[in-house]
Amino acid sequence: MSIAKAGASKKRVRSRSTRAAPSRTSVQDYPLGLVLALMSLLGATVWSYWGTIGQLWEEWQSNEDYSAGQLVPVVALIFVWVERKKLAACVPRPCWWGGMALLVLAQLGRAFGLLFMFESGERYSLALTITALVLLVGGRQVLRCLGWTLLFLFLMVPFPGQIHNRISGPLREMATNGSVFLLEVFFNEIRHEGHIIYFKEHTLGVLEACSGLRMLTAFIIVACFIAYMVRRPRWQKGVVVFSSIPIAVVCNVIRIFVTALLIALVSSEVGEKFFHDFAGLVMMPAAVMLIFGELWLMDKLIVPDATSTSE
């Protein structure tokens, strides 16, 4: 009798394990029709937006302020690869009404850009169209899984002209004032008129290209990547992303300050070489160190909540 019971219990265990197995989904379990539909829609989107994609590529290559945007699609693919297990566990349930509504909104934005010669409208509609296709084919569960990645895609689009001008001017002003403040520690006679700094017998102009906008766009992308990869609460991830703005301003002020010191103490050629060649390589690792220092400071100052979960 005991042997029979043991055999029955083993059969129950086996039956339970066989029942639990089908609950797991993988990429191979996705309906072939949905996969083909998504690939077809993505192909049609690339074909339809080919001109916009070409304009984006030319902008990334010609405008140094937004050259970091070409890294966004590559990093987005890395995000998708990191989430591959969660994606495999998602059950695709196409959301037709939500996807079509978002797709119509994206095309309205594109039409607005075409009619009024607003390039940013066409470019943002590309990212919004990709989001609409994910919702249309994969459903809300897949959309939640890829939410951060889809939002990240919007960073590949350069700022519209008005926003660019509103940001570039204050950044240039802060770079000039911050550099003058630091230089006053080393030089007695220093003054500035507008964005021209006079110290000793030298002159340093903070041009529009020196506003730090290129550094800002690059640091935001790097901060988003770090925030995505670290396992922290959402509010800490948000702090990391938003802190990239003051970090970019501080790094640009330091770059101009060191350039002025090299011009005064060594030569103008060395200062210009540092500003255009060496400083760009140094500031990015410095910004990354500041972000990780910020995370370390959070660990020291914040007591983790037992009920909170890291992401």
Secondary-structure map with pairings?
Blueprint: H1 2-20, H2 32-48, H3 50-62, H4 71-82, H5 84-89, H6 96-115, H7 119-137, H8 140-145, H9 147-153, H10 161-183, E1 190-193, E2 196-199, E3 202-205, H11 213-229, H12 234-265, H13 268-301
Antiparallel strand pairs: 1-2, 2-3
Helix pairs in contact: 2-7, 4-9, 6-7, 10-12, 11-12, 11-13, 12-13
Provide an overview of this structure.
With 311 residues, this protein is mainly alpha-helical. It has two domains: 28-158, no CATH class; 162-301, no CATH class. Helices cover 72% and strands 4% of the residues. It is built from 13 helices and three strands, in the order ααααααααααβββααα. The radius of gyration is 26 Å and the shape is elongated. The protein starts with a helix and ends in a 10-residue tail after the last helix. The model is unreliable at 1-28 and 306-310 (pLDDT under 50).
Gyration radius from CA atoms, angstroms:
26 Å
Q: What is the number of strand segments? A: 3
- What share of residues are in beta strands? under 5%
Indicate the mean pLDDT: 81
What coarse outline follows from CA principal-axis ratios? elongated
Number of helical runs?
A: 13
Class from secondary-structure proportions: mainly alpha
